Amino acid sequence: MQRSPGLAHPQLCVVGVQHDTSPVAIREKLSIPRRQMQETLATLRGYLPAGVILATCNRTEIYATHEDGAASEQTMRRFLKDWAGMSQDELAPYLYCLSGHAAMRHLSQTASGLCSMVVGEHEILGQTRRALEEAEQAGMVNVPLRKLFQHAIRTGRRVREETDISRNALSVSAAAVHLAAAVTSDISRRRVLLIGAGEAGKLVARALAQERVSRVTVASRDLGNARDLASVLGGDAVHLGHIQSEMEAADILITCTGAPHFVVHCDAVKAVMLSRPDRPMVIIDIAVPRDVEPEVGRIEGVLLYDIDKFNHISEVNRKSREKEIVKAIEVVDDELERFMLWWRTLEAKPTISALTQMADDIRQRELRVTLKKLPQLSQKDYDALDAMTRAIVNKVLHHPIKCLKQNDVRREDFVEAVQELFNLDGRSSS
Prior knowledge:
Blueprint: E1 11-18, H1 24-30, H2 37-44, E2 52-56, E3 59-66, H3 69-84, H4 88-91, E4 96-99, H5 100-111, H6 123-137, H7 143-162, H8 172-183, E5 192-195, H9 199-210, E6 216-220, H10 223-233, E7 236-239, H11 244-249, E8 252-255, H12 266-274, E9 281-285, E10 302-306, H13 311-320, H14 322-373, H15 379-405, H16 411-421
Parallel strand pairs: 5-6, 5-8, 6-7, 8-9, 9-10
Antiparallel strand pairs: 1-3, 1-4, 2-3
Helix pairs in contact: 5-7, 5-14, 6-7, 7-14, 8-9, 9-10, 14-15, 14-16, 15-16
């Protein structure tokens, strides 16, 4: 039995990329800086009437609802292709698309930290909340999307309250420091140059402090921010434009700016290494888009790690939390089962609306025909007759509507039966 397109209910779809589906070279083309989010959402409005963008350092996803799920998916793919400046053939192998229940489960698991490069990391829950707030500000949120994201945020909070998934969880920034400690001897005695004084930089600084690293220089385009962060570490601060001499002194360089272009160039690092041929340098780039030109990794004496080199740390972290992951998934599925009870009611709403509208159209038409055959009625008599016919219609429809609204597996059968029995496909009801 084919359902009328005019009575379709919202279909949920998510299209995107994340760390386990695409390399950083692809993710950086799709990255959306927070400062550009409103502009990006305004652009998205030209493609979709409603949508939420979840953009982090390791993922870019679009969530949308549409009456035609296939058309919505293609539209989101086209937006991402246009944003990245790539052809469909270039981008398609890295995109994933989930719809319906699978898309809802994915968002809940993401907000719970289960899809992160470092399982259980804290930042993603706030990023999910901010994605909804940004979309609300841009006027791009409808009721289904609002409810969906509120459900995911609630699920993420419950996972953190009822499991140990986030206990002692690393952030990507902290993982960068752990990596630096693993590839150098006695990191506390090493000289570190930290490029970036934003949120990621602050997390790096916190991790460096835990490792008792005292010789730290912070570089940023905003010298005031660099000084504030350096003061926490008891280190020095320099403007980003004056990092050459600091690189010459550094054993470890960790960079995490939000710049849309490279800030550490191959020629500069070559010059630095020529001045210190016997001292290797570890460079860890956790920015997306990348801060360091990839060719830097070919320079003798340089060990370059970009964010895709964190897979080993990510896998070790995941294995250490396997029991908590199982518990977290149970919470996700429990919350999703409850949410689906509400979501399924959306399927019945267009049918209920069409049914009540059809019945009232018939009532009004027959009432007009009857009134022409009767003597002139007083307003009081007309109101009584009108109220009586409304009551009849409401009582006739009461049980069918109750069946359409009920939360059980028979609802879909009821929806289809009512659409066919009452001819709710747009044809004349006369």
